[in-house]
Structures are given as C-alpha cells and as structure tokens.
Amino acid sequence: MRQITATRLGRALAGAGVLTLALTLGGTASFAGAPTTARPTLTGFASLPAATFVPGSEPSGSLVTGNTNGYPTPFADQPIQGFSGIADNGDGTFDVLSDNGYGNQANSADFLLRIQRLAPVFATGDVDVVGGINLTDPDGHVPWQLTRTDRVLTGADFDIESIVKAADGSYWIGDEFGPYLLHFDRAGRLLRAPIPLDGVVAPETAARTGVPATLASSRGFEGLAASPDGRHLYALLEGTVAGDAPGQLRLNEFDRRTGRYTGKRLTYRLEAPNLAIGDAIAIDRHRFLIIERDGGQGPTAVVKRLYVADARDRDRDGLLDKTLLVDLMNVANPKRLGGFDTTFTFPFQTIENVVILDKRRVAVLNDNNFPFSTGRTAEVAEDNEWIVITLPRSLDPDRRVLR
C-alpha cells in the first residue's frame, strides 16, 4: 500500500520556519493575470494520490466488502480521501470535508469524520496535507447512542456532505442521515444538538425513531451555502421529498441568529429526475453556484456541470432560474495541463466540491469514493483531482464571499 504523509510540511517546518511556510502556502492558490478565454479553460491542475492516509491514525475499512481495486482492507490508517465539501481559508490552504467513509452507514463505523487542511501546489501538480481535525461530541449534544464511547464521530453516526466556515472559525456542516445541520467549533467539537428539518426524514433517522421516511437514503444536505453577510445558511437537499414533483429539490433558509429555519424555501429543478447535485455555494445574495451530475464515470459520464441558479425567478415559474456556466466534460486545455488533451474532461461519478477563487476562477474537486471509484482508468482507484477553471467573463461575486 502506498502511503503519502505530510512529510513536506515537516521538512518545511524544520528547515525554513513557520513564517516561511505560511508565506509559501499563501502563494499556492493565487492566480494573477487572468487570461482572456472564449470558453471555460483549465488553468490549474493538482492531484492527491488515492492512497493517502492520516499517518499514525487508527485502522479503518474492516467492514468494507466488494472490489477495492487492489487495496487490501482493513487499511492501517484513516484514508484522507472522499471529499464532499470545501472552504477557502484565504491563505492558500483549504478546509476540505472528508465524506462519511465507504458509501453507507453499515460499513463506515471505523471511519473517523474529519476536516482535512490541504494546500494545492499547482506549479508541481501536488496537494500537500498540512493538518486537520477530527469531529467529536465531548459534551453529549447528540441525544442518541453514538458508535464510539469516546464520542469521536464516525461514518456510522453522520454522513457529512457540505460545509460552511463561519467568520469565528466554527463550522456548519450538512448531514444526510437526518438530514441535520451540525455546528462545530474550530477544534471540531459539536456545539449543540443536531438540527433537523421539519417534515424531512431520511431512512437512517426513520430506522432510529420510527417516524416514516420522506426522503431516499443519501439524499440529504449535499449543498450548504452562506449568505454574503453570514446571517443565513441555505441547505440544499440532494433528493426530492415525498410528495414534491420529481427532480425538484428544496433549498431551505436557516437563520444563524435565531438558530432556526425561517420557513423560506426555494426550489431547484434538476435537468432530469435521475440526476443529482454535488455542491451549492453562494455567489451573492441572489445567486448560487451548483454542481449537477449524473451517476456515470469514465466512458459513461455525460452530465457533469456547473450552473448559476438565481433566486429572483424572473420567469415567475416558482423555480430558481438556471444558466449553464461550465460543462465539466468540455473544458479547454490549451496548455495540456495534467498531461491531458486540449479538451479536458472531469469524468467522475461524484463531483462534490466547488469554491470561488476570484471573479473569474473557480476550483472544482471530485470525491473519489476511495477505494471504489475508477473514473480515469478501469480497475484503478481514482485520485482526488483539484482543477482550476478560468471563466470567459466575471461571475461578479459579492466581495464578501471571497476570502
């Protein structure tokens, strides 16, 4: 098993000092001098190898079955992979949310929920792992029994899929098993009981409470956006609630001051009911950037897109107005970054991370579902790729959404 650790971090600390390291990281994700482009263009590429683990951590994957693409289980350490949400720290590092583990509640009890701190280095095509925190509930805010008696949270407890980092350094995270909103402090400690959404119940919660499910499994809060002023969160369900029109998804407004949902609800409609969303973030107080995708990978990947969704509903149909921003299966790559052809594709089953870097640049990351997904090469576990796309024109984002 190939194991990649944060050794570059250790060398930098030993040889150059913390200040030099901070300056280096601060420059890794700056992109001065945006080129003029006729269509979305790949201007940055980096990847983290599939077999990347938290060194010295606990074994994981003992309950995994099926084809693991050459990686024997259990793993000696915790995998870093499976990214399902991203927050920009503004210094060249990003806090990236690891997914719940190995695809379902039953096989993820030994996967520790964690926020990884990563730094892409586009000059070399590498991604440095520079830290991270485990998510815990030491004060007993979760009222039901957790998997571990030490109250370290696992993939059998929550399926964390979306993240917002608040100005005070705390984290709001969207879960799919409730679905719940979870609020953690900067050290990863849960600050209050999980916050449910009235009338929406996932099968995992139904099994625990006996309340009938109104949502399919793994269809909870896949996207979580913050308003530019930070007061409101907008939690987007991945699946359609029972009784709603097929392919229509609820975007729910939550007031951080009151700690309650406001009752305001917007509706996002998928291009087809069999598609799914991968992430949702705010551009300004009206517009959101949303990943929409099919379930294909490799040769079966077709719909992998970024849409701008506008809440002003100019056509008065009761839905967010959608405009295609980027077809991720058709991105110009004139410099052949990453060793790919002049047309770059992002053919991964799950693409679950988007972040706005500046007025004309966005970064997109896949979730590699380690060790299962094989988007680039059949029977080869895929890496987590980190791409930067320059847009033909400015997104005109609210300056407050930029770090």
From TrEMBL:
Keywords: Signal
InterPro entries in alphabetical order: Phytase-like_dom (IPR027372)
SUPFAM superfamilies (UniProt xref): Calcium-dependent phosphotriesterase
Keyword Cytoplasm carried by entry: no
Pfam families: Phytase-like
Residues in Phytase-like domain copies: 78-370
Signal sequence region: 1-34
PANTHER family: BLR7070 PROTEIN (PTHR37957), PHYTASE-LIKE DOMAIN-CONTAINING PROTEIN (PTHR37957:SF1)
Protein name: Esterase-like activity of phytase family protein
